[in-house]
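ok trying this again, last paste got cut off
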Amino acid sequence: MGIAIDRLKELLLSMAGENAPGREFAAAIAELARTGRFPDLQLVLPPVVYDELWQRYRLDAEGFVEEWEQLAWQMQQGFVQHARQRLTSLTRLQQADSRVTPPWELIQRALDSRQNDLLRAAMAAEFLDLIEPAVARATHLRECVIGSETSEEADRYLDEATRCYFLGLFTACAVMCRSVVEEAIRQKLPEALRRQIRSRYRNAATLGNLLHEINNNLTATGIAPGFPQLANRVNDIGKKAVHQGLLAEDEARSCLQNAREALQMLLER
């Protein structure tokens, strides 16, 4: 039985809409302001929200009431979308001199001060949108089967790199790919060579440094001859991610696939 993601999203938005006070909340603010009972809001709003609304009301009482009456009509269907805009604002740099808190955000801050239901619904909607692209990306990968033990750190790096790829965080994926290969190399090197590298690079050897040492000591390390080529591809894309800008999906996929192949070759026995 197939899972209809669009249907799940419809159900989510429907459930969120049922619980969003929207129109009633905005209409109540307009009514209290219109009838001179604005101070009553101090009992239900966080101080920072109340203070900002009070300042706006004092500047233009009639305009304030009209604005909130219009907002009441718009809010019923727009709360979750507004919450998603609010999530987006948390991921972007905001200009202090041009930032004006819109009324819907003031409402959301007031409502979310206790339950966070609107942000919860917005976050769920964001993740539902990620499911189909993530599934498509997952079809490009196969299990990474190895023949020897690895470290918990390497497992966690690979897990994070793969999840970043699924979620469309391509630059982060490449950075983590470089980390997982670097960690696996450190675990695989003979102890004598590890000590030598720690001393030579003062405990700060990069993946490039490690690959240079492997090339110079390939026989001593027992590492497969094809490993450095794969690992260098990972290193090159990882360096591009760090120093030259955001990566495209195909670059991240290539980096992840090369990293997984490199790990299988490095840890085959």
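PB: full thing came through this time. Residues 234 and 254 are 8 Å apart (CA to CA).
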